Protein: Tryptophan--tRNA ligase, mitochondrial
Amino acid sequence: PRVIFSGIQPTGIPHLGNYLGAIRNWVKLQNTAAPGDTVIYCIVGYHAITLPQDPVHLETERLNMLASLLACGINPKLSLLYNQDQVPEHTELAWILNCITPVGWLSRMTTWKSKLAVARNAGSEDEIDESMLNLGLFAYPVLQAADIMIHKSTHVPVGDDQTQHLELAQDIARAFNHKYGDDLFPMPQQLSTSAKRVLSLRDPAQKMSKSAPSDKSRILITDDPAAITAKIRGAVTDSITEITYDPEGRPGVGNLISVLAACTSEEPTLDLDAIGRSYQGRRIQDLKQDVADAVIAKIDPIRKEYERIRAEPSWLRDVSEAGTVLARERASRTMLEVKRTVGLARM
Ligand code: AQP
Structure:
């Protein structure tokens, strides 16, 4: 049986990229899991604090993310859904893994290298300066490996941007098994989605992101139809009037076509060129209207569900607490084995 695990940071309401690229697939995996499979989704607060967060805001975002995942269709009766920061075994295992992970492995991570580059060239409006390059940010991929390994996960649905981190988790699992001569941890496999990366509506050279400064760059799952229409009408494209699908040369238009396809079908093999051709002779405004309608059809039921769920914080806390209990049971079993293996079990 498979143990499927993935996580998301409580750094803001999920956007269309998080939904189409990750959460929608999580729901599908949950609903198609075989008997005996375990499906685990985790809100990773300890990852969020690797960058500065306002404490009051973070508390709210953790509840918002829980409500968002439930609104998108994660069902706590089918999936183990919980907050990482309520399960101390994650950080306990991370420390032990820190002690077998060469620093060189982490220095090679492209996420770290790009943050380093930004910080070194920091201007006044840059998001990261050198003081933010903390040890937690550097060691983040080890905590991610611990998140996966604490549940002995076998399958991890994450986007291509996470491939390097997942390979690192495999290296760490292998290093642990090798050092202690024990096959305690299975090799976690990446479960990729065929979903195209959703790009920023303001700058198609960037992906859509929770933390980008402009609200207009992303569509949130809580946006109402008027907001969605306005953001898509304002999406940056290019000056060519003809509509063609050329994701490299025309990323703005390509992004609209791929969002249209993703919202109207879950079929991964959908022919995006053909969709582009079907708009021949029509205006970009027509395409944008169709994209807005398709996004609204997908997002609006989720928004309504979110509003209903978010109005019940005590129920949300019950869901999180029930998840915590189950997650701790699993995690403490692994931790006991790990501590026995390492020589830290008894006094
Ligand atoms: N634009 C995107 N298109 C497709 N998938 C995306 N994901 C993120 N952005 C896009 C996928 O969403 C999952 C959860 O992401 P995360 O919260 O762990 O952080 P992230 O990848 O760094 O996403 P954000 O939205 O850009 O958040 P911030 O701004 O907090 O860093 C992942 O599976 C990711 O692949």
Residues 8-9, 11, 17-18, 21-22, 158-159, 161-162, 197-198, 207-211 surround adenosine-5'-tetraphosphate (CB under 6 Å). The mean pLDDT is 94. The CA atoms of residues 109 and 164 lie 7 Å apart.
